[in-house]
Specification:
With 153 residues, this protein is mainly α. Helices cover 76% and strands 0% of the residues. The chain has seven helices and no strands. α1 packs antiparallel against α2 (18-38) and α3 (49-72) runs antiparallel to α4. The longest helix has 24 residues, at 49-72.
């Protein structure tokens, strides 16, 4: 994934697409910052793809919040800029699960975990995070898991 970002960064430089270039530089800087923070004698390889996906997911979440604030304040041009950055970052993430796929995955995880009460939400979400990290928005999944467990109990 890191190589793909570097290649796209070089292409954006050649095409002189400033907005894309700026966003790709932000992604690259965030990855390098985390690399440096995690660097140790045991971990000299840097971040893996899963950790890079987490960084980009966090970047999308930050920009989504910014869009809401900008639109509330009437700053449409800034909101559009943030939306464009979100679309560029999203290009590098794995395909997101549909609502139907999410619900199916939740039901499978509940069955596999043998969950039957609201107390089992944590383990079910943990199982889902292991399997679907970066492919689903867990701010949506958590309430769905709670609702399904409440209905089943």
């Amino acid at each position: 994934m890191r190589k793909k970002i570097d290649i796209e960064l070089k292409l954006a430089m050649k095409s002189q697409n400033q907005e894309r270039l700026s966003t790709l530089r932000l992604i690259s800087a965030a990855i390098k910052y985390r690399d440096i923070a995690l660097r140790s004698e045991e971990n000299s390889s840097g971040l893996n793809d899963e950790e890079i996906i987490q960084i980009m997911t966090q970047m999308i979440r930050q920009r989504t919040d910014s869009v809401a604030y900008y639109e509330e304040a009437g700053r449409v041009e800034l909101a559009e800029s943030e939306k464009n950055e979100i679309s560029i970052i999203t290009e590098f993430l794995p395909k997101q699960l549909s609502r139907q796929e999410i619900e199916t995955a939740i039901i499978e995880a509940i069955k596999a975990q043998q969950a039957n009460s609201i107390r089992d939400v944590g383990p079910v979400i943990g199982r889902l995070k292991k399997k679907y990290a970066g492919r689903a928005d867990f701010s949506i999944i958590a309430p769905l898991v709670k609702n399904i467990l409440l209905k089943s109990s």
